[in-house]
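Feature request disguised as a bug: please show the residue count (356) next to NmrA-like domain-containing protein in the output. Example input:
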Amino acid sequence: MQGGSVVNALLASKRYNIRAATRNPSSERAKELAKNEEVQVVQTDAAKKEDLTRLFQGADYVFGVTNFFDPDIFPDNIPEEERRGKLMIDAAKDVGIKFFVWSSLPNAAKVSNGKHNKVYHFDGKNNVAQYALMSGLPCAFIEPAVFMENYLSYYPPRKDGDEYIITSPLTPGDAKREYVSINSDFGRAAVVLMDDPKKWQGRTVRLASDLISQNDAAAIFSKVTGKRFKYVEAAAHYANEELAAMFNYFNDHGYYGRKPDETVPFTETKELGIKLTSFEEWVKEHMDDFSTSARCFSYPEDERLQIGSSMFMNKSYREKVNRSLDLLRGGQESEGDGSLLLFSMFGGEPLAESIA
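Example output, currently without the count:
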């Protein structure tokens, strides 16, 4: 999702040739991307430094991101995410990349003074950011807030009689969280950083456009769609250990561990100079998805508090939910979020030039 947003923003800027890495160039997503004459799709194994070095050769800029929930990483090989991120940094430094934009997250262990030290998908990405800084590689970091798009994928609203329910475990209805639209705003922010490496060198952008609670979200859904939405907190056992650790961290420190006097958008986010999408604006853009039951889950009575993605589930629930997902997709198998692993951006050449 993040990589696709970056590609779209780079294409819109009309200033970059783009090289995109995928482990499966035959996938529908990769084929669709390759239809753009400014995009070269390259088969790459992000676990191998030699593949990354070949991918980055001749590039000026790189955007890097890892997917913690890739089945090659989670749940059995958690250190692999950090290892792959550091491989990207090493490869970028070896070939002389001019500027590297890394998708990072806050370090939950540091924010909580060691209390929340098992939010691995946050801490691993942040460790890669610190590694990049220490390496001397010109770099900057974007820490995206909670994805608004999660309401379309990981926990979509569920129809329950005449109303729609949004739900999440370990999240009080009045707890405020920072949000951002990845599809609308993440890529544009990354391009701003790439366009001015000198200004953004070594800096971190906490990318958040809105601060709302789940109760607020339900009210906004109701306002925009004309349907009745409500939030119901799911029981803690519906979250796997990784997500439970994350939600508990949120409850103690919020998403970023922000100071009480800090407002959203943050100061550095305002410096980007781009208009970000509010949650209400985002819901309006996706009104068709939330005003019909087509994308909403319907569970039997005894599963009412279950949320909508196997990523969030304990293992015992995953098979059942995956069957529901297959039905919603019309029986078509999903390629998963890990298909496009990272994107390497090429600048400085007119688009009429061939991509090296």
